[in-house]
Model the fold of this input.
Amino acid sequence: MSEDWIVRSPTAVDISHLVTALNDKVPHLALRGDTGGEWAVVVDAADRPRLWVSGSRAALDGDETSFLTEVCAPGDGPIPPYGTPHLLVRDVVRAMASAAGGRAERLSAATVPDAARATVDVPEAVMQQRDSESLDCPADALYEKVGVVVQTRKELTLSPWLVLQQQWADRHGRQLAVITPAAATISPAVASSLRAGGTRWIVDTGASIYDGVTGAELSWDGKRFAPTGRSDDAFVPVEEDGWVAVIEAETFHPYDETTRIGDFTRTVYAAAGLDGPAAAGVLEPPETVFDPTVLTAYAQHASPESSRFVLASPSADGVLEVVPQPPGVVERVEIVADAPDGPMGTDAQGEFVDAVLAGGAQVATVGYRRGRADRRVASRFVGPTIPVVATFARSRFDSLTDAEATAIGGDQGRLVQQPVPALVVQFDVSDDGVSELRAQGGAYDHPVARIDVIAQSLAEHDSHLRAAYADPNV
Done:
């Protein structure tokens, strides 16, 4: 139920634009920074946040660069003398847009769906809890173990507002729950971010609520969301869904070698027959063209913390993760790509393996799942990602003998020596793949179960994992 707007302008919005808008519209409200130092917060006399204003950030808009400034009001409680948050945010955003020569766009309305309103006690009880917990809580509702944000937008992207919510919940030991309408979709970058941060996607049908990933019907007991033991009736497959490819790969950069983030990622795209990423950034839409020099500098500045980048191209969406560890830096990429012709054939799988191994991959997989033509994630059943090929560099499990490694790969696995020694597993899926994958699409089909067994078995002998998580005091 956050009232969520952006100002899209040809130049960055200056703080003076916000001050002018506030003085004209709400002179009784004050302005300060948030505890993270990244947002301007408009507060009332009790220092309670009423509006959150992000810093302006560049975003690619075709061949042009525009600047986006997000303005949000959590909750739907009245803001005297304006009444609903909508009117205040609308007037402030329009004034800012006018001053910056831009335009205002409304993303999410502060209208609470019936099921969500029954779930989330707002505004009075929540505001009292927020006062005692933290005045800088951006969530729409706050409970002992859960922070709740309600978004009415139809397409949820990785925005500054969503990232702020996740960061606050992580710092304060809460699980974040994002509630969306049943018709809403999330981008692959949002899906990846929710998984990484332990954020729960909850879908509101108006009559029920359910987990947007698993389809488990949920109930609310006043403190947490709990499964009822049933799958929601709305969580069903649709015939119009096609195939999307899911490519995952990682490499390792030792500290005693020159590290350049992004070249490996380009190699993975090319190996999968995709055009390389055109844009990259920490949010959506990405801020800049894809440039390994820029990515490397950003990751070095963020170290020893991890970095995550959103990658965009016409036929694929990607997430690049950079993880500093004691022995070196892991570069890990996940790509969701168009697959109008279904899964790649055996020859293409071999070419993919050769290319990624030559490019330095230590682990790489290609799989397929059902999905929308635009690659966005809907809250419906799509089945698991079904692997067609996986490869694991032999250097990662050098304590295993060839016989032991071959045994883990099973009947469909083989050891190769070129371009580097590796275990390659090609799963039993026919070249045309579509009809066979459709028949094997249950949650316990053989390829899905098999790749989990292989990955777990190899992890027990993974020399990189041992070095990364070894106790330095031992």
Remarks:
- The first helix runs from residue 15 to 25.
- The chain has a mean pLDDT of 85.
- The first strand starts at residue 3 and ends at 9.
